[in-house]
Amino acid sequence: MRTQVGIVGAGPAGLLLAHLLHRAGIDSVVLEARSRPHIEGRIRAGLLEQGSVDTLVEAGLGDRLLREGLAHDGLELRFDGGSYRIDLHGLTGRRVTIYGQQEAVKDMVAARLETGRPLHFEVGDVTLHDIATGHPRITWTADGVAQELRCDIIAGCDGFHGPSREAMPPELLRVYERVYPFAWLGILAEAPPISHELIYARHAEGFALATMRSASLSRLYLQCAPDEDLSLWPDGRIWESLVTRLGAVNEGRVIQKGVTGMRSFVAEPMRHGRLFLAGDAAHIVPPTGAKGMNLAVADVRVLAAALTSFFRDGDTALMDRYSDICLKRVWKVQRFSWWMTSMLHRYRGDDPFEHRVQVAELDYLVHSKAAQMALAEQYVGLPYDI
Ligand code: FAS
Ligand code: PHB
Question: Does residue 272 share a domain with residue 131?
Fold first, then answer.
């Protein structure tokens, strides 16, 4: 099999890249380890920056997003018994949109299948070869039959646990990581959201976040231990803890429950030879800043432009700058996500100094327009570098 770009992974990064390349007349093959129902059912991110919405709409992927997405002009912070709204749109003229990641994946899978170009599900043993040459290859198995794809470029969009980052020469790879001493227990519940906007709550018992997927579907998270045993959290205990931390909730049938670990992770560089990493394959952020999927979109915008220059004009300038351009944004978003996480979570529960400093940070934030502008312009999404 031969193509121009071999894409490993059909998450937001891989699917969006395939779509943008197809629109530029560049051929690709997408290889995905899981089944279509699995990737379309994976409950993950939910919040899109203005730039991500604009990117999807401009690419012709935004019809349902514009119909069903929930546009938000602000968010709420709760701490020390108080409740404060940050006027995102008033401060920046931009807004964020709630649209489940799995919905965006469904839209992009449908768009890919409509092109008739290859998207292989349930592939096995994906292995990258000759990435430092001009003729990289990907081998894999489909129904136990060995396959090979010869291509000009490989895009590693296979998430944190995929093979692409592992294919980078270890002596060239620099990894930066911080693992947080807590996780998020997330639920999806058939209950109307308690507010039309998101609520981030800092509480002595721990962090909580009230978000949503529709007017009748709530998405709620609460801070828990990093190795939390979900069996110790029956629904009743979850609702009780959410009431303690948020002040009030609308209870309903819990239809999904899971624990998500929290880490900050960056692998540099994001490119070696003809292999380009994008999205979670290169970086992970704690979800407090709602940036994971949005960073994947930002990487792919740069990669699609770089590969278009390469295939159309033989110009490698943008390819050669790909990693540097992406990492400039990645590190700003890492810092923002780390800051939001540090301000809102209980680290060392009995540390009175930590408690006072966190409350002071939040108190300064909600009483300073300058501080609110700093939060707002990062939360709605910084302008793209290119
Ligand atoms: P993805 O991980 O989405 O996609 C990678 C794809 O590669 C997957 O489909 C995988 O099956 C495939 N793959 C892996 N190995 C492969 C192989 N060997 N061969 C072929 N395919 C392979 N972000 C937020 O902003 N807010 C949140 O609340 C949030 N919650 C999250 C909860 C969980 C449990 C996780 C894991 C992540 C969460 N994220 C959240 C972050 C998440 O949304 C990611 O940032 C986003 O999925 C990144 O997209 P991709 O880079 O495409 O990676
Ligand atoms: C979500 O809706 O899943 C969500 C929103 C904001 C976050 C994290 C998750 O910071």
Answer: yes
Residue with tokens 């380009």, as numbered in its chain = 276
Record the pTM.
0.97
Residue 252 belongs to a domain with what CATH number?
Answer: 3.30.9.10
For residues 147 and 2, give the distance between their C-alpha atoms in angstroms, rounded to a whole number: 11
287 in contact with ligand 2, CB cutoff 6 A: yes
Where in the sequence is the domain holding 10, given as residue range(s)? 5-72+96-176+264-344
Question: What is the CATH number for 125?
Answer: 3.50.50.60
The pLDDT tens digits of the residues spanning 215-272 come to 999 999 999 999 999 999 999 999 999 999 999 899 999 999 999 999 999 999 999 9
Going by alpha carbons, the residue nearest to atom 37 of ligand 1 is 44
